[in-house]
Amino acid sequence: MERRDFIKLGTTAVAASALAAREAVGQPQPAGTTAFAAPPIPNVRIGYVGIGGQGSSHVRNLLKIKGCQITAVCDIRSERTDWASKAITGAGFAAPAVYNKGPRDFERLCDSESLDLVYTATPWEWHVPVMLAAMKNGKHAATEVPAAMTLDDCWAIVEAAEKHQKHCLLMENCNYDRMEMMVYNMVRQGVLGDVLHAEGGYLHDLRAIKFADEGEGLWRRAWDTKINGNTYPTHGLGPIANCLDNNRGDRFDYLVSMSGPSRGLQDWAAEHVPAGSPKKQERYVEGDVNCSLIKTAKGRTILVEHCTNLPRPYSRIHMVQGSKGLFQGYPNRVYIEGRGKEDEWVDANTMLGEFEHPLWKEMASAAEGAGHGGMDFLEDYRLIKCLREGLPTDMNVYDAASISAVVHLSVQSVGKKSAAVDFPDFTRGRWKTTPVLPIVHI
Ligand SMILES: NC(=O)c1ccc[n+]([C@@H]2O[C@H](COP(=O)([O-])OP(=O)(O)OC[C@H]3O[C@@H](n4cnc5c(N)ncnc54)[C@H](O)[C@@H]3O)[C@@H](O)[C@H]2O)c1
């Protein structure tokens, strides 16, 4: 098949699945809120699927968190299941059951193990199959980001979670970073006034990682040959979605998106990939910079950016603007009318004394040394705590679906000269009655 036919086919599939998703909106609306809670589980038995770079970081965290045990592990590479088994027994737990017999062996794990939770950090294309297998077999599911790459898959996880009455979480670690949590705390206290606009993104030079012969180099670059849009919206969007009460009083209504030229990977390949390598044959369609604008049901605006193929320092932008002031990340600064000098930023670190989120105050030392500055530990801790105590989780399947939907919707909008595309209401109206996220504690 010609490359351009393949891409065309991809676009047709994207359009068809969007149509199917729209039809699903007409289904009967379950009553109440989306704050689902399951019966408490005193000791959470976990099956971990995909133990590469990020999965091993979660495994290390879970070994330190009270009230959980990794009793099964799965990866297509036996060296990764060996590593996990050694780490688990080294921490004083019984050896886990091992599943490493190919890319669908997680189905056997979900089917045959007695587990409470299946947690996956596989490549993007496997998140939904793993979570559906987990929920179908009576297990809660949690996934690394993004949860899903198509609207069909977003609906599939929502429908499975509702049908099987299981948690299905997007594990967005950036929601738990220190500044993001401080800003959420400030928003809840009304310090920024009414929030009117926010900006977030994932701006990270991944060229060397994408071309490596290991880790993400084995799967992530392939997405750049298939779709053109924002393939990784959740790190920037997750924290600001909470500040705008997404699915809890407001919701994403529609999106417009533009991608610029595709140059970064081509330039990298020309300079670094040796002649004769199959990588030389690849053709990238992903624009280097993608900008999407979201309008919420309450008329508020969000800018989401994506840029992973150009040389640049790291940033998630992280801007939250209200009627009384704003927070702006990278570098972290605050401006609040009536506090400090007019027209001058204040270093956000000086606000930590007053506005630090209680979870960070309580857990900073426990999180020290864990992945991504400690935020990964806090998110794993909260997951296990909510399961053990039978609480609604901080992030749920509606967050997973609406935030991940930006992947598909941005591709659609880019393909239609930036036409507006609607977000499905995955909550089926319950965003109006679901309470805002509380300020959580240890
Ligand atoms: N939240 C974050 O900050 C963060 C950081 C890095 C990666 N991630 C996410 O974590 C996920 C994994 O990324 P990574 O960097 O660890 O990639 P990786 O390639 O290092 O790890 C993926 C692992 O999954 C295994 N795998 C692949 N297919 C499988 C299958 N069908 N069944 C079982 N195992 C399978 C691979 O062998 C590998 O060990 C991705 O979704 C990525 O977006 C998130």
The SSE string, one letter per element, is: HEHEHEHEHEHEHEHHHEHEEEEEEHHHHE
Query: Which blocks of ≥5 consecutive residues have pLDDT under 50?
Result: 1-29
Class by alpha and beta content? alpha/beta
Strand content: 15-25%
Describe this structure in words.
By secondary structure, the chain is an alpha/beta fold. Helices cover about 40% and strands about 15% of the residues. The strands form two sheets. A nine-stranded mixed β-sheet has the order 14-13-12-11-7-10-9-8-15. The protein has a six-stranded parallel β-sheet with strand order 3-2-1-4-5-6, with helices on both faces. Strand 9 and strand 10 form a beta hairpin. Helix 2 crosses helix 14 and helix 4 runs parallel beside helix 5. The longest helix is centred in the N-terminal third of the chain and has 22 residues. The N and C termini lie far apart (about 55 Å). The N terminus is likely disordered. Bound molecules: nicotinamide-adenine-dinucleotide. The site of nicotinamide-adenine-dinucleotide has 26 residues, from helix 2 and helix 5.
Outline of this structure?
Helices cover 38% and strands 17% of the residues. It has helices spanning 3-24, 53-64, 78-90, 105-112, 124-136, 151-164, 178-188, 207-210, 220-224, 234-243, 264-272, 352-355, 358-367, 375-389, 397-415, and strands spanning 44-49, 68-74, 97-99, 117-120, 140-143, 168-170, 195-203, 252-259, 290-296, 301-307, 319-322, 325-328, 333-336, 346-347, 421-422. Strand 9 (290-296) and strand 10 (301-307) form a beta hairpin.
